[in-house]
Design brief:
11 strands; 7-stranded mixed sheet; Aspartate Aminotransferase, domain 2; 4-stranded antiparallel sheet; 15 helices
Length: 387
């Protein structure tokens, strides 16, 4: 089956009611036939649902789809993207272990590296998005995980998964990719040697700004460790959210195609705007990693950044002038969302660290939505004002 078909047709077995669309299984636990059924179920001699912290027909459907769409072996679904990332690290790392990560990662992931993992004596070294050649020099005897996001947030740099995957393989490191910005429709990191792929399903996978969710998929033996950790610690996705997210996957391909088309149109329009210093979008020829993006991504994604002339004052005036686009922290919604990373999502970083990840005072990030492309361009153009 092809991508679109799997996203629609992979389904939990029908109940005795012969429903066409999978119903909601809002139940915390499942019953046993008899004492022997209970014993053998707990002994994992058979695969069946026991308790919704462990598994549930709705979460299983969602996970099976992501596993299939990413070309993975197994997976587990979490309440949020951050619980997927934290539980993955917590399940696989021990005191004394070392992580190598790209410097540009999601803000809360950065906080895990700097604030929480050090409590358990787990340290992290960073490389800049344009310095994959330095990764090997950061490896120590304790390095266990090589971690990246691509495209990065908010700089939309594109990292070469093939090169990083081959380094991970050479040094026997676990290669983990946060594939949230690309979705499994645009990019499959497992093809390039990723051992695990994590997603915030809150973004394009839901795509309509309704629910939170996360998922980790990849090698069976690693997912087994993550599953055992999670079954005991309790970060499970709710069946209701899994039901929503599985329905969302049915339309992922058509939505993402349109998001990418709208984003490319907006990128071209901003490139020709004299009040803009530069525009960065993976599928613009001017993007420094255009060739890598073309190699590993089907389309350019729905996130672009640009820098307005005139710094922070002008950036804020621009945001205040927007009439339709939302100022909000989410991304990957049907509604176009505009943010100013330096004063919001990344305000905890020092000026020095901001510049290291390419966040200037005039930098604006757009999560391009599904409104009519002309209306998106009109709002962002009129927001530059007369003077
Ligand atoms: C939003 C996001 C996360 C965290 O996901 P939540 O569902 O908000 O917990 C992780 N990584 C990336 C790249 C994100 O955009």
């Amino acid at each position: 089956m092809n991508f679109e078909t799997k996203a629609i047709r992979l389904q939990t077995d029908r109940s005795q009611f012969q429903e066409h669309s999978t119903p909601l299984y809002l139940t915390s636990s499942f019953v046993f036939e008899d004492a022997e059924d209970m014993r053998s179920s707990f002994a994992e001699e058979k695969e069946r649902n026991l308790y919704s912290r462990f598994s549930n027909p709705n979460t299983a459907e969602f996970v099976n789809k992501i596993v299939s769409l990413e070309g993975a072996e197994a997976g587990y679904a979490f309440a949020t993207g951050m619980s997927a990332i934290f539980s993955t690290f917590a399940a696989l790392l021990s005191s004394g272990d070392h992580i190598i990560s790209c410097r540009s990662v999601f803000g809360s992931t950065h906080s895990l590296f700097t604030k929480y993992l050090p409590k358990w004596n787990i340290s992290t070294s960073y490389f800049n998005a344009d310095e994959t050649n330095l990764i090997e020099s950061l490896i120590t005897d304790h390095t266990k995980i090589l971690y990246v996001e691509t495209p990065t947030n908010p700089g939309v740099d594109v990292l070469d998964l093939e090169i990083i995957g081959s380094i991970a393989k050479k040094y026997n490191l676990l290669f983990i990719v946060d594939n949230c910005f690309a979705t499994p429709y645009l990019q499959n990191p497992i093809q390039y040697g990723a051992d695990l792929v994590v997603h915030s399903a809150t973004k394009l996978i839901d795509g309509q700004g309704r629910v939170l969710g996360g998922v980790t998929v990849g090698k069976k033996e690693l997912i087994r460790e993550i599953y055992l950790f999670s079954r005991n610690t309790g970060p499970a996705m709710s069946p209701f959210n899994a039901w929503i997210l599985s329905k969302s996957l049915e339309t992922l391909s058509v939505r993402v195609e349109k998001h990418c088309e709208n984003a490319l149109n907006l990128a071209h329009s901003l490139e020709n705007n004299e009040k803009v210093n530069f525009v960065k979008y993976p599928f613009l020829k001017s993007h420094p990693n255009y060739e890598i993006a073309k190699k590993q991504m089907k389309l350019g994604g729905n996130i672009l950044v640009f820098e307005v002339k005139g710094g922070i004052k002008y950036a804020q005036k621009f945001l205040n002038n927007l009439k339709m686009c939302s100022l909000s922290a989410n991304l990957g919604d049907t509604r176009t969302i505009v943010t100013h990373p330096a004063s919001s999502t990344h305000s905890k970083l020092s000026i020095e660290d901001l510049l290291k990840v390419g966040i200037t005072e005039g930098l604006i990030r757009v999560s391009v939505g599904l409104e009519n492309s002309d209306d998106i361009i009109y709002d962002l153009t009129q927001a530059f004002g007369d003077e």
